[in-house]
């Protein structure tokens, strides 16, 4: 899209003209949260201090260019502006003024306090004193309640909630940055550490006046709110400055917000509430908004690259009704992802096998095959056998991921094409698609052959306890009387134990009996490193014995150190109690155990037999 320059009024000036006027600003709903981190605020601070210092030494120094602002004037209030671009800089300036005001308050500089309050607040048309800037709906409650009030810095910081939300922490940390510079930082962090308090007061006064008088800005002012959406999209095209989800949210709200008024309609408020619910659901399960959008689009519109999310949605959504429908479907996907990532017994009929597979897939993957389950959940929504079909698909993708990706290291870029093919099969199916899905997997040229799988498994090692826990549990089920009975034995808090431990001081006397290790040193360190995370060196134990086993020698772990001492022989899991069959524990035993596992492994992760 191109900007219509005729609707834009460009004004050049300094920050003083913005902050000492009756202008006030609001951050629209489509804008992202305030998100400047310490390095960005540090850059702002350093630029201000260095330019101030140069100006003090050379009054002919040129003005500092602080960038441009994209603003949209309210049709009904010529002093009210929507901030389309520049909210990070504008908010940081206000945070700086607030911190300085609080510093001056603590040190009895009432004139400075009053001057800064006239910047932080203004008198509106109704003669009420209100904040100069109103942040978006997620940031503003914390900003208004905890940042803006006039208090000394220690008093304000003590009022901050100990458990702030993610969007609140960013604001809290910005204020703490200025506090560190002004008062509490270590000598290397504190601004002007060698100056007296009186000298600092003069310098800090000079800094805020310098920011107002010598930081130059360009204000690009547009005529109505509807332009704001297009401007936002244009200046952030292709996600060069924003994430895809920011652009998508803006685009969806643009279609839903079909009035010119700056007042928000109920449709816009409802849509923003819906987006907030989606965001909250995803935060709880550790999936980003971009990731959710990619999974959703792959499930229903085909393979989608992470940098093409906005592009695909903008081609698909072309009306208000389509925007509202898309948002509803996206929320359905987020809610189902929550059931996949954080499953409850209630969600899945207390089916232990299914819950184990969901936990297993979550532990071994980043969720790249979830589009298959999203597509299936929608396709089967009116199917009386929905639960049974979903259960089978969950088992299939978990086993496929372990065999192809976890053990054999197939690139997920390669797997993406298979995910896309399976989603198409689900979409086009008129009956049960699972037999066809299995055929598609088995003919896929990335499916590891038995020989490939055996070779890779013989070399398999993992630093991830969650990956090891999944695989060891599956093998235990296979070696015992089946999952239904074994589920009573394998407790939820079962832990992964390294038989040869991470710290081997107590093992050295036994290990140096091996000829190649008799001199210790690097050979011993290398030996330990190449065996520690081999799958054959891992087993399952209960939490309390695991702490007692710790780094003890193999003989003590196996048989205990006394009558009441826990030992592998007493563990309920067969894969651990069977360790008593080994006289000692070294590389040869680790490799042998890993090979003996394969007869079970071959059957468990053979999709032809699943």
What does this structure look like?
It contains 28 helices and ten strands. It has 610 residues and is α/β, with parallel strands linked by helices. The chain has four domains: 5-227, no CATH class; 238-342, no CATH class; 352-448, no CATH class; 458-604, no CATH class. The strands form three sheets. Strands 1-8-3-4-2-7 form a six-stranded mixed β-sheet, with helices on both faces. The longest helix has 22 residues, at 320-341. The model is unreliable at 1-6 (pLDDT under 50).
Write the layout of secondary structure elements.
Elements: E1 8-14, H1 15-19, E2 24-26, H2 38-57, E3 64-73, E4 80-85, H3 87-106, H4 110-120, E5 121-123, E6 129-131, E7 133-134, H5 140-147, H6 153-159, H7 166-184, H8 197-214, E8 215-222, H9 225-235, H10 244-256, H11 266-285, H12 289-301, H13 309-316, H14 320-341, H15 352-364, H16 370-379, H17 386-407, H18 412-428, H19 434-443, H20 450-458, H21 465-479, H22 483-486, E9 495-498, H23 508-511, H24 521-531, E10 538-541, H25 543-549, H26 554-559, H27 574-577, H28 587-604
Parallel strand pairs: 2-4, 2-7, 3-8
Antiparallel strand pairs: 1-8, 3-4, 5-6, 9-10
Provide a brief overview of the structure.
With 610 residues, the protein is α/β, with parallel strands linked by helices. The chain is built from 28 helices and ten strands.
Summary tags:
single chain; 610 residues; alpha/beta; 4 domains; 6-stranded mixed beta sheet; two-stranded antiparallel sheet; 10 strands; 57% helix; globular
Low-confidence stretches: 1-6
Strand residues, percent: 5-15%
Radius of gyration: 31 Å
Total DSSP E strands: 10
The helicity comes to: 55-70%
- Average pLDDT across residues? 88
**Main sheet characteristics:** 6 strands, mixed
Provide a count of the helices: 28
Q: How many angstroms separate the termini? A: 51 Å
How are the strands of the largest sheet arranged? Answer: 1-8-3-4-2-7
The best one-word shape is globular
> Which structural class is indicated by helix and strand composition?
alpha/beta
Oligomer: single chain
Number of domains: 4
């Amino acid at each position: 899209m191109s900007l219509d320059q005729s609707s834009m009024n460009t004004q050049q000036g300094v920050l003083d003209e913005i902050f000492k006027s009756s202008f006030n600003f609001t951050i629209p709903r489509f804008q992202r949260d305030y998100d400047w981190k310490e390095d960005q605020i540090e850059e702002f601070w350093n630029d201000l201090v260095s330019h101030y210092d140069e100006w003090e030494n050379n009054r002919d120094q040129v003005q500092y260019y602080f960038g441009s602002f994209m603003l949209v004037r309210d049709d009904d209030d010529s002093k009210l502006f929507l901030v389309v671009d520049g909210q990070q800089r504008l908010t940081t300036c206000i945070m700086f003024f607030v911190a300085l005001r609080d510093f001056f308050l603590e040190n009895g500089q009432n004139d400075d306090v009053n001057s800064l309050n006239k910047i932080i607040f203004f008198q509106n048309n109704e003669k009420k004193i209100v904040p100069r800037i109103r942040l978006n709906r997620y940031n503003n409650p914390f900003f208004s309640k905890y940042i803006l009030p006039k208090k000394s810095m220690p008093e304000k910081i003590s009022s901050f909630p100990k458990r702030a939300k993610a969007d609140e922490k960013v604001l809290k940390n910005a204020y703490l940055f200025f506090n560190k510079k002004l008062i509490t930082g270590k000598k290397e962090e504190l601004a002007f550490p060698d100056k007296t308090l009186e000298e600092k007061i003069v310098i800090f006064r000079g800094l805020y006046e310098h920011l107002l008088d010598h930081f130059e800005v360009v204000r690009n002012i547009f005529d109505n709110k509807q332009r704001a959406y297009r401007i936002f999209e244009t200046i952030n095209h292709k996600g060069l400055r924003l994430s895809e989800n920011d652009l998508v949210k803006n685009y969806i709200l643009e279609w839903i917000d079909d009035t010119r008024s700056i007042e928000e309609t109920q449709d816009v408020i409802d849509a923003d509430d819906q987006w907030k619910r989606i965001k909250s659901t995803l935060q709880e399960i550790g999936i980003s908004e971009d990731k959710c959008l990619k999974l959703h689009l792959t499930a229903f519109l085909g393979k989608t690259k992470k940098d093409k999310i906005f592009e695909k949605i903008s081609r698909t959504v072309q009306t208000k009704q389509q925007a509202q429908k898309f948002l509803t479907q996206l929320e359905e996907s987020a809610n189902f992802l929550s059931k996949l990532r954080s499953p409850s017994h209630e969600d899945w009929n207390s089916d232990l096998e299914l819950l184990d597979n969901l936990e297993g897939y979550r532990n071994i993957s980043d969720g790249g095959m979830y589009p298959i389950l999203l597509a299936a959940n929608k396709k089967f929504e009116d199917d009386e056998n929905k639960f049974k079909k979903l259960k089978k698909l969950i088992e299939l993708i978990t086993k496929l991921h372990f065999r192809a990706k976890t053990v054999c290291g197939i690139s997920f870029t390669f797997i993406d094409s298979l995910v896309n093919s399976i989603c198409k099969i689900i979409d086009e199916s008129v009956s049960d698609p699972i037999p066809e899905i299995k055929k598609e997997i088995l003919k896929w040229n990335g499916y590891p052959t038995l020989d490939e799988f055996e070779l890779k498994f013989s070399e398999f090692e993992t630093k991830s306890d969650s990956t090891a826990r999944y695989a060891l549990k599956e093998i235990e089920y296979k070696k015992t009387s089946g999952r239904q009975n074994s589920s009573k034995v394998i407790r939820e808090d079962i832990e992964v134990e390294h038989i040869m431990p991470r710290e081997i001081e107590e093992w050295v006397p036994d290990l140096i009996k091996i000829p190649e290790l008799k001199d210790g040193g690097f050979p011993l360190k290398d030996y330990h490193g190449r065996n520690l995370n081999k799958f054959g060196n891992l087993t399952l134990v209960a939490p309390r014995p695991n702490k007692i086993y710790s780094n003890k020698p193999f003989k003590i772990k196996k048989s205990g150190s006394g009558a009441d001492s826990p030992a592998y022989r007493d563990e309920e899991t067969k894969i651990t109690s069977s360790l008593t069959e080994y006289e000692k524990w070294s590389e040869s035993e680790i490799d042998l155990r890993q090979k003996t596992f394969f007869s079970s492994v071959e059957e468990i992760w053979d999709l032809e037999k699943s």
